[in-house]
From TrEMBL, chain A:
Keywords: Cell membrane, Membrane, Transmembrane, Transmembrane helix. The chain crosses the membrane at residues 62-80, 92-108, 114-137, 146-165, 197-215, 277-310, 322-343. Its main location: membrane. PANTHER family: ABC TRANSPORTER, PERMEASE PROTEIN, GUANOSINE ABC TRANSPORTER PERMEASE PROTEIN NUPP. CDD domains: TM_PBP1_transp_TpRbsC_like. It is found in: Cell membrane. It is a multi-pass membrane protein. GO terms for molecular function: transmembrane transporter activity. It comes from Azoarcus indigens. This is Nucleoside ABC transporter membrane protein. GO terms for cellular component: plasma membrane. Coiled coil: none annotated.
TrEMBL record, chain B:
Keywords: Signal. This is Nucleoside-binding protein. Residues 1-27 form the signal peptide. GO terms for cellular component: plasma membrane.
Amino acid sequence: MLRLEARPQASRLMTWLSPLLAAVLTLAAGGVLFALLGKDPAEGLRLFLIAPLKDLYGLSELLLKATPLMLCATGLAIGFRANIWNIGAEGQFMLGAVGATGIALWAGESESALVLPGMLLGGALAGAAWAAIPAWLKTRFNANEILVSLMLVYVAQLLVSWLVFGPWKDPQGFNFPQTVMFADAALLPVLVDGTRLHLGLLFALAALVAAYVFMYRSHAGFRMRVAGEAPDAARYAGFSARRTIWTGLLCGGAAAGLAGMAEVAGPMGQLTDKLSLGYGFAAIIVAFVGRLHPLGIFLASLLMALLYIGGEQVQQYMNLPNSIALVFQGLLLFFLLGADVFIRYRLRFGSEAAGA
Amino acid sequence: MTSRRTALKWTAGLAAASLLPGAALRAAEPLKVGFVYVGPVGEAGWTFAHDLGRRALEAAFPGQVKTTFIESVPEGADAERVIRNLAQDGHRVIFTTSFGYMDATLKVARQYPKVVFQHATGFKTAANMGTYDVRTYEGAYLAGVLAGKTSKSGNLGVVGSHPIPEVIRNINAFTIGARSVNPKASTRVIWVNSWFDPGKERQAALTLIAQGADVLMQNTDSPAVLQAAQEKGVFAFGWDSDMTSFGPKAQLAASEIDWSVWYKKVVGEVLAGKFEPKQQVWYGLKEGAIDLGHLAASLPEDAKKLLAERRKGVLDGSRPVFQGPLRDQAGKEVVAAGQALADKDKLAMNYYVEGVQGTVPGGK
């Protein structure tokens, strides 16, 4: 008989092996899926996972796609570590884009070197301000931050729509819902010529390092981790729950806001109502696949970006539907949650007595 | 050993792949034509109509044309990569079929001057990039004529997607058509802020019906509005393609787009080496790119006769859709008697005409 037995303590090894196991199982299931669709599994997996990386441009696109995921997930992980469940990074991302766009439009044709730093600040602050709403409601009225942050995503979407259909509409744009294209001074410089990879990637990497230092090398980060892993101990030690909530949500909001800024000042070059591609939600998967650890998030965001781009490739070369990318993402999360069981349990053969 | 051989094979494969764009130029190779779709192909609607056009194109040039399509491409930063990959992969003609691809198409067009780009419904062009669109308002107008004839209450409803000129134009044309039959008819609009969201479209349709509308039209991509009409026993139209199977009793007719008219012309001229990409094409009833078809068998003869008259009026120019005297909602004259609205004013239309209720979102 096969049975699960609780481990005396959580396995550190399995904590890191589980995402790998999930990735391998996703690949295997993906192969089966290709076979069932009547396509060569090896060719399918090659197109999905290797073909997107065949040249410098492909690599740059992968990093470009991973940048907002990395930023959003890094910020979310800080809150998740302390059991602060910010589900609204998507809305904070949009507000960041709005904040940055506000500065860019205000600066107009200005060539000042201060435009970009201003947009950076504007984006991060706007994202943080949006996340401050659930933080305030949570600390003041004990309102559930999951619901509040999620609902604010829809408010943010409507705010963006109102802006691009109303006051920020490009007067030359035939009434289409978009702002003017930003001036050069409001665009992030491209890192590699001939690609779209921009300075935002460095923001994301810097955020990863900063998150690592904060979580593992600072007292404030220590308090956050204790609050998440042993809430009673945190209370006993007199750590402020209020401060934990504020830190968790503000970090998540600022990082998502920064990602939104990098999107409008990077590949888009303007604000439109088609801004949101679900990065804020996908980042939740990224944060968990990455074990809420900066290094893990770095790898997980690359994997997630690859799944998006691979989905386009299999469409182009194998004529498979677009939904296949979503199926892969779902498989990944499904197997991860399954494999996570083995962090706290192990598989035993035979009856309980024999296992002991 | 094996792994090294595989690696060598790989390198050779990559080297061969990088030569492909040149190879595709040889006459023996079929012309590769790429399509970028905003939604899933599905069974009806905007993207489905484009895909019908694509299939008709392949059928018209057997062996000479090979098409590729990528569906559900979001209108944002991702579109540029998809379009570029098609160009990089040797597609010589690329159709991007939604407004939101405009700037992405333009950027890629600059990087691939030898490739022909055709962007649907936009307004930016380049030496190797043109725009094309269909006068969907002519279909909406004819639908309006039938709606005015059919509606008992004179209360009409439209489920709108985004309040952009194209959709506002269609709502206006629908209302003008209806009021040309029943001057008391009026139109209510509910915006769902999405091109494809069957849940919201259905909800909007049910709300309009609850408010007394007995004929509906939609400028969204799913058949949800027609299905809701079928359930509640009121009438509606197929939009962009025939939708009979989703509401056999409710569908009065379908405003059907035939994109293949333009697709075949572009590809035929590209094959003959005489295509001029920088054009702004707006095809209509006259070119056979739009028509009101699949008329319900239940329509009375006089309705069919009236429709045929109005259709002829649009076709021969004796009765254009936006003819004066035409007043906007506030009663201000926008087209004087004896005049017709110019195309450039149609393209920027951001006001409702008399007979439409409510205000244009974001408008003044």
